[in-house]
Design a protein that fits this description.
The chain has 4 helices and 5 strands. The protein is of the alpha+beta class. It has a 5-stranded mixed barrel with strand order 1-2-3-5-4.
């Protein structure tokens, strides 16, 4: 009967590890792992006796405690986590030096967002109030951060 008990407890520990490292957030694997460990300990108490049940409980708690201590070490998580840094930035307008009053042309329909060309470069623009058709002459009214606001020159 001991092999069944040991297998239940080990599979329960494996399911808990899967819950923590592979499929976090679902909870199903963790619950199954906990139930399998509890079933293994219960079998040890009912089939083998109280003394053997205490041994199975102590070993299971000890293995779980050692796993918790190892998991809380910072080097463990550094090995398991991704270490990617994003150093890129959103497109800025310094290469062209766009300013309020510059004139251009829409290359797509602006409803109210669309594409426009200024100084032979393409930019995403936003019409202030109206919808603009393709090939409309436009003027920059405002630049806020990386957002360009335009108006129609044909009005």
């Amino acid at each position: 009967m001991w092999p069944v008990i040991i297998i239940l407890i080990l599979v329960g520990l494996l399911m808990l590890l899967l819950e923590i490292l592979v499929i976090p957030g679902s909870g199903v694997a963790g619950i199954i792992g906990f139930v399998l460990m509890a079933a293994g300990i219960w079998l040890a108490y009912t089939r083998q006796g109280v003394y053997e049940g205490h041994i199975a409980l102590a070993v299971t708690l000890g293995v779980n405690l050692i796993g918790l201590v190892l998991a809380l070490r910072s080097k463990t998580w550094k090995k398991a986590m991704l270490d990617t840094r994003i150093d890129s930035k959103a497109r800025t307008f310094k290469s062209v030096d766009l300013k309020v009053g510059d004139k251009g042309k829409t290359i797509s329909r602006c409803a109210p967002m669309g594409k426009a060309v200024f100084y032979d470069q393409f930019f995403e623009v936003s019409a202030l109030a109206e919808f603009l058709d393709e090939n409309s002459d436009i003027e920059i009214v405002k630049i806020a951060g990386n957002k360009i606001f335009i108006k129609n020159l044909n009005e």
